[in-house]
Write a structure and sequence with these properties.
The complex is a heterodimer. Chain A is about 0% helix and about 60% strand. Chain A is an all-beta fold. Chain A is globular and about 45 Å long. The relative contact order of chain A is 0.33. By secondary structure, chain B is an all-beta fold. Chain B is built from no helices and 11 strands. In chain B, strands 2, 4, 5, 6, 9, 10 and 11 form a 7-stranded mixed beta sheet that branches. A 4-stranded antiparallel beta sheet of chain B has the order 1-3-8-7, with no helix packed on it. The chains are: A mainly beta, B mainly beta.
Chain lengths: ~110, ~110
């Protein structure tokens, strides 16, 4: 079993819909990252969470440390949100800080 | 613009060639990373440099040789690669100990022929 599992793997939505992407993990972490990768390949960091909830514009990320689960929500989705969304775990303790273990990504397509 | 610049963006090389990938960060971070993204596979950590010292080599074959001459620059030297090494190679930087996010470059799309 992978240390980090994302669902769904593919997600198609109509513009304006509320979107949720889930990430479950099985190891201790110091933080969880949500990343966005556009077709050109570059990756942008959206959130880094160690507890609770964060919000940037239309994006909301939550994490439940006890349940080892995080969600990324997009409100009022737009075609420009189409991208791959990646959950990544940052290790806990010693030399594990900074090192990321990645989920397989969720391919999101938002149609006009 | 993330503050992390990778060159070249695209590279095609033969199996007997030697080439280098370059990464530069303008963020004052103390850690830099090389990641590999193969088709239909999650990103994989290759190397970590912390204050210019290599702290992680994630079982990477010796045909990949990293170099970190200072905290702002990171290279990945490539020689006698195999076609299965074709992938997107991403560089990232972060400030360890400050609980901050990682910043990624745009990546180098490498094709080995």
């Amino acid at each position: 079993k992978n240390e980090v599992e994302q669902s769904p793997q593919n997600l198609t939505a109509q513009e304006g819909e509320f979107i949720t992407i889930n990430c479950s993990y099985s190891v201790g972490i110091s933080a969880l990252h949500w990343l966005q990768q556009h077709p050109g390949g570059g990756i942008v960091s959206l959130f880094m969470l160690s507890s609770g909830k964060k919000k940037h514009g239309r994006l909301i990320a939550t994490i439940n440390i006890q349940e080892k689960h995080s969600s990324l929500h997009i409100t009022a989705s737009h075609p420009r949100d189409s991208a791959v969304y990646i959950c990544a775990l940052e290790g806990a303790g010693g030399t594990s800080y900074g090192k990321l273990t990645f989920g397989q990504g969720t391919i999101l397509t938002v149609h006009p | 613009e993330t503050g992390v610049t990778q060159t070249p963006r695209h590279l095609v090389m033969g199996m007997t060639n030697k080439k280098s990938l370059k990464c530069e960060q303008h963020l004052g971070h103390n850690a830099m990373y090389w990641y590999k993204q193969s088709a239909k596979k999650p990103l994989e950590l290759m190397f970590v440099y912390n204050f210019k010292e290599q702290t992680e080599n994630n079982s990477v074959p010796s045909r990949f040789s990293p170099e970190c001459p200072n905290s702002s620059h990171l290279f990945l030297h490539l020689h006698t690669l195999q076609p299965e090494d074709s992938a997107l190679y991403l560089c990232a930087s972060s400030q360890l100990g400050m609980n901050t996010e990682a910043f990624f470059g745009q990546g180098t799309r490498l094709t080995v022929v």
